[in-house]
Design a protein that fits this description.
Length: about 170
């Protein structure tokens, strides 16, 4: 379920021929989440005009028991994603059943190889997974990288056209 109260399934909702940026987060976090969400807000503003409706940002809660759609809505509003804006790409804050979120977290690669560290979800990193479901090109980088580097890399990996990838009209 997203912060708009809409029920969805990850594969059907997001892997439908669009580019994605995905992260894991907490609505109440004193660690890396605020910085990662601020970076995503900047990426949305920079990449929204380039990709339009073909890019979606998905922030998935690590605390599905506590982070209800209403809590996600409050968090989304802080970062300018509380309502859909046609001039920007879609940004959805997502929760679900704890077992489903855990399965999704692992299938997307948001886990630590050390089981002790992985068991403590507060040890999560500020990783951004991004790619294009049409070309099946995917990569990941820390959200704390310089914005220009993130923008360039996301464009090159996730772009559908030469212009989206390189910023040059073909």
């Amino acid at each position: 379920m997203n912060h708009f109260g809409e029920r969805l399934r990850f594969r059907e909702a997001f892997l439908d021929g669009r580019a994605l940026i995905v992260n894991m987060m907490f609505t109440v976090c004193k660690g890396t989440c605020p910085g990662a969400s601020a970076a995503l807000r900047g990426l949305r503003e920079a990449l929204g005009p380039v990709f339009g409706e073909r890019l979606t940002i998905v922030s998935i809660t690590l605390e599905p028991r506590d982070d209800s759609p209403a809590a996600l809505q409050r968090c989304a509003t802080i970062y300018g994603a509380g309502r859909r804006r046609p001039e920007l790409c879609d940004w959805q804050f997502v929760t679900g059943r704890p077992a489903s979120v855990e399965r999704l977290r692992r299938s997307l690669g948001f886990y630590d190889l050390d089981p002790r560290i992985d068991a403590d979800v507060t040890q999560h990193g500020e990783l951004l997974l991004f790619g294009n479901s049409t070309s099946d090109r995917w990569s990941a980088l820390p959200a704390s990288l310089r914005p220009a580097l993130l923008i360039e890399t996301i464009r090159r990996v996730s772009g559908f056209t030469f212009e989206q990838r390189y910023g040059i009209r073909a």
